[in-house]
Amino acid sequence: MAAAAEQSSAQGKATTWHGIVLETLKRNEIKLTPYVPDKVLTPLIKNLHADPYFTTFPTAREEEAVGIVSGAWMAGMRGAVLMQTSGFATLANVLASLAVPYQIPLIMFVSERGTLGEFNYGQALVCRTMRPVLDSLALEHHTITRLDELEFIADRSIKQAITTQAPVALILNPLLTGGKTFDK
Amino acid sequence: MTTTQRNTKVMNRFELTQRLIKGLKDEAVIGGIGNTNFDLWAAGHRPENFYMLGSMGLAFPIALGVALAQPQRRVFALEGDGSLLMQLGCLSTIATLAPNNLTMVVMDNGIYQITGSQPTPAAAHTDVVAIALASGLANSSWAADEDDFERLIAQSMTASAPTLIGVRIDDKPGTGTTRRDPVQIRERFMHGMGVRQPL
Question: How distant is the Cα of B86 from the closest Cα of chain A, in angstroms?
Answer without folding.
Answer: 10
